[in-house]
Amino acid sequence: MMFEDYKNPDPVKPLPTIVPTPDEYQTAGHNGFTALWVVFVIMTAASAIFAGLSWKIPVSRRLYHVITTLITITAALSYFAMATGDATSFNCTKVKDHHGKLPSTHHQLCRQVYYARYIDWAITTPLLLLDLCLLAGVDGAHTGMAIVADLIMVLTGLFAAFGKDHTAQKWGWYTIGCVAYLFVIWHVAIHGGRLARARSNSVGKLFGSLAAFTLILWTIYPIVWGVADGARKVSVDTEIILYAILDVLAKPVFGLWLLLAHRRIPETNVELGGYWAHGLTSEGQIRIGDDDEGA
């Protein structure tokens, strides 16, 4: 019996094979691209409407119209870039795969990031704040500080979107952006609201409504970022659709509301003359080569 056991030992079991997990790519799909094209059309149409409304206003009073039209034109260009597949990159992070008692492996998880969105925000959100500050009569110092804080908020969001996961880098940038947003609220909503109410009740009500509407939307943006680019809990398509809804409300809807409402409140007009309204005139110009006849 012992001899038979010696001649027929148990066969050696093969070592289990570890199949590495392939790299994952989170990208936009059909629904996402459809949303991008729809918003591009909306922003383009809004730009045409705002430009058309400006023709009924004297040039000296078109500042709100010019700013608001620039906002939607910039957004239209951004959405055209995203819808055609431009202005996008990938942020990849290494994910560890556990295999029980076997050695762990790693794979790359790459998420599509549309940096055109941040370029858009860096241009349009300061213009939105300028609209609100002009409406309230905010001084240049507070307006400038609000715009700087806003740019810090947008740029730190961009840095966070390309930051490394599982480190303090990404969420550190995110935190800095949220702190900058508090300064925007202070300079625009609190200080601006006080000045708007001092101008008149009608100005105070209009500014309060527009500022509350804008800041509520702006508070939702970082929440969407946190579950999308931040924690990657929602798909790229869902991220696109959520931002699309917010952008339409924050730009065309805001702009139309502002342009139609402020026309009924004369004290909100910003009167610009000089070069803005009349260009360069011959009055006061020095002509080289003209001799003084009395000399």
UniProtKB/TrEMBL annotation:
<feature type="transmembrane region" description="Helical">
    <location>
        <begin position="240"/>
        <end position="260"/>
    </location>
</feature>
<keyword id="KW-0716">Sensory transduction</keyword>
<keyword id="KW-1133">Transmembrane helix</keyword>
<keyword id="KW-0675">Receptor</keyword>
<feature type="transmembrane region" description="Helical">
    <location>
        <begin position="145"/>
        <end position="162"/>
    </location>
</feature>
<keyword id="KW-0472">Membrane</keyword>
<keyword id="KW-0681">Retinal protein</keyword>
<keyword id="KW-0812">Transmembrane</keyword>
<dbReference type="GO" id="GO:0005886">
    <property type="term" value="C:plasma membrane"/>
</dbReference>
<dbReference type="GO" id="GO:0005783">
    <property type="term" value="C:endoplasmic reticulum"/>
</dbReference>
<feature type="transmembrane region" description="Helical">
    <location>
        <begin position="32"/>
        <end position="51"/>
    </location>
</feature>
<keyword id="KW-0600">Photoreceptor protein</keyword>
<feature type="transmembrane region" description="Helical">
    <location>
        <begin position="118"/>
        <end position="138"/>
    </location>
</feature>
<keyword id="KW-0346">Stress response</keyword>
<protein>
    <recommendedName>
        <fullName>Opsin-like protein carO</fullName>
    </recommendedName>
</protein>
<comment type="similarity">
    <text>Belongs to the archaeal/bacterial/fungal opsin family.</text>
</comment>
<keyword id="KW-0157">Chromophore</keyword>
<dbReference type="Pfam" id="PF01036">
    <property type="entry name" value="Bac_rhodopsin"/>
</dbReference>
<dbReference type="InterPro" id="IPR001425">
    <property type="entry name" value="Arc/bac/fun_rhodopsins"/>
</dbReference>
<feature type="transmembrane region" description="Helical">
    <location>
        <begin position="174"/>
        <end position="194"/>
    </location>
</feature>
<feature type="transmembrane region" description="Helical">
    <location>
        <begin position="63"/>
        <end position="81"/>
    </location>
</feature>
<dbReference type="InterPro" id="IPR018229">
    <property type="entry name" value="Rhodopsin_retinal_BS"/>
</dbReference>
<dbReference type="GO" id="GO:0009881">
    <property type="term" value="F:photoreceptor activity"/>
</dbReference>
<feature type="transmembrane region" description="Helical">
    <location>
        <begin position="206"/>
        <end position="228"/>
    </location>
</feature>
<dbReference type="GO" id="GO:0007602">
    <property type="term" value="P:phototransduction"/>
</dbReference>
<dbReference type="GO" id="GO:0005216">
    <property type="term" value="F:monoatomic ion channel activity"/>
</dbReference>
